[in-house]
């Protein structure tokens, strides 16, 4: 007979010892009530988004839980960044596998504390349960914009230019690297950097003011550039033509790219892989220069990669030729 695993910390201990210290704002009521009470702010919109992560699907079972917690907050913050919103707070649901120990709970709380401080977030409430399944975490994140100022997916117009922040493909390559699949393919330092980009994305919050002022449509790039550009195209009723040879690629990713036999296919793989947490956006031609300059001031590169035209869907072009893609983006199982 297998002995019962020792009981893990109970829900009330976790809330009282680990979560209450993260919930300092008066709206959270010290996590001793059934709900938070958030005063309405006249003239502002609450911008609300939710992302969930499951062990073995969205992070590796062996990943340290402080990094997992930080990735959870950052994937949610990436949605706020793409919407031009100011981060405010979050609700957290945790489903622990039976037998999770204090050390794991503490590590998760430490990661939350670190990124709360870095990004100006506070914990507002949540739910804590146990599960026979894998560790599952979900955050509902709240941010603010002036009323009506959220940057929409639906605001791209024909003749707009398409820009993307940062570099594309690092998250997808980073997952390969974390699984040991890039050993001998890129230099060890490059493999490590890519794995770091997968484990800890950088939400592009520095762009939020520029997006509000100058962008047309925008979306967070989490499922893959082509899929997420497709969301803008569908919501806006336009076609986006992306030139893959203009794709911004990091130096470590370009080491991988240089080893691929078919450059067009390899670029398409980077543009369909997920986990970038960059922002894809459109803007009027007249705003391209100003947006790029604002990005530079904020420390985030913006690269023009294509244009919006009449029609629908996304075309991925390589040297003027349209590629047939067998998948339009990373689909989580
Ligand atoms: P309920 O009985 O409705 O499930 P709980 O007793 O689980 O309520 O929650 C008590 C308080 O603790 C609430 O304020 C809730 O928001 C908070 N709370 C529970 N779990 C979490 C969590 N994972 N993160 C933040 N707050 C939490
Ligand atoms: Mg509960």
Task: Label this structure with key terms.
alpha+beta, seven-stranded mixed sheet, 11 strands, 34% helix, disordered C terminus, binds adenosine-5'-diphosphate, binds magnesium ion
Structural features, described:
Residues 329-333 have low confidence and may be disordered. β10 (313-318) and β11 (321-322) form a beta hairpin. The two termini are 35 Å apart. It is globular and about 60 Å long. It contains ten helices and eleven strands. With 333 residues, the chain is of the alpha+beta class. A seven-stranded mixed β-sheet has the order 6-8-5-9-7-10-11. Strands 1-4-2-3 form a four-stranded mixed β-sheet. Magnesium ion (MG) is lined by residues 127-128.
Largest sheet: 7 strands, mixed
Work out the strand percent: 15-25%
- List of distinct ligands in this structure: adenosine-5'-diphosphate, magnesium ion
Uncertain runs are: 329-333
Helices, by number, come to 10
Rounded to an integer in angstroms, the radius of gyration calculated over CA atoms is 21 Å
What is the SS-derived class? alpha+beta
Please provide the count of β strands: 11
Arithmetic mean of pLDDT: 94
First-to-last CA distance: 35 Å
Helix/strand order: HEHEHEEEHHHEHEHHEHEEE
The helical percent reads 25-40%
Which strand order do you get reading across the main beta sheet? 6-8-5-9-7-10-11
Dominant shape = globular
């Amino acid at each position: 007979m297998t002995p019962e695993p020792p009981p893990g910390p109970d829900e009330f201990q976790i809330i009282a010892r680990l979560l209450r210290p993260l919930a300092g704002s008066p709206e959270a009521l010290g996590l001793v009530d059934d709900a938070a009470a958030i005063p309405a702010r006249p003239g502002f919109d609450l911008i609300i988004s939710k992302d969930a992560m499951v062990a073995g699907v969205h992070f590796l079972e062996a990943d340290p839980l402080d990094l997992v917690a930080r990735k959870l907050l950052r994937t949610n913050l990436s949605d706020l960044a793409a919407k031009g919103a100011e981060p405010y707070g979050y609700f957290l649901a945790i489903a622990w596998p039976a037998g999770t120990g204090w050390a794991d709970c503490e590590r998760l709380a430490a990661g939350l504390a670190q990124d709360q401080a870095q990004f100006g977030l506070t914990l507002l409430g949540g739910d804590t349960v146990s599960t026979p399944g894998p560790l599952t975490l979900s955050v509902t994140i709240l941010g603010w914009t002036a009323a009506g100022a959220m940057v929409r997916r639906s605001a791209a117009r024909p003749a707009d230019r398409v820009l993307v922040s940062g570099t594309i493909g690092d998250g997808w390559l980073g997952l390969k690297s974390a699984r040991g699949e890039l050993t001998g393919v890129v230099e060890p330092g490059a493999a490590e950097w890519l794995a770091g980009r997968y484990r800890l994305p950088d939400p592009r919050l520095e762009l939020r003011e520029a997006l509000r002022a100058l962008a047309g449509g925008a979306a967070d790039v989490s499922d893959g550039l082509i899929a997420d550009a497709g969301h803008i195209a569908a919501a806006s009723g336009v076609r986006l033509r992306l030139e893959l040879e203009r794709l911004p690629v990091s130096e470590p990713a370009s080491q991988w790219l240089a080893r691929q036999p078919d450059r067009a296919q390899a670029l398409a793989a980077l543009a369909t892989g997920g986990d970038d947490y960059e922002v894809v956006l459109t803007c009027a031609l007249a705003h391209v220069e100003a947006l790029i300059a604002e990005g530079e001031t904020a420390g985030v590169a913006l690269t023009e990669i294509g244009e919006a035209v009449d029609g629908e869907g996304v075309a991925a072009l390589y040297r003027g030729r349209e590629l047939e893609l067998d998948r339009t983006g990373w689909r989580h199982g």
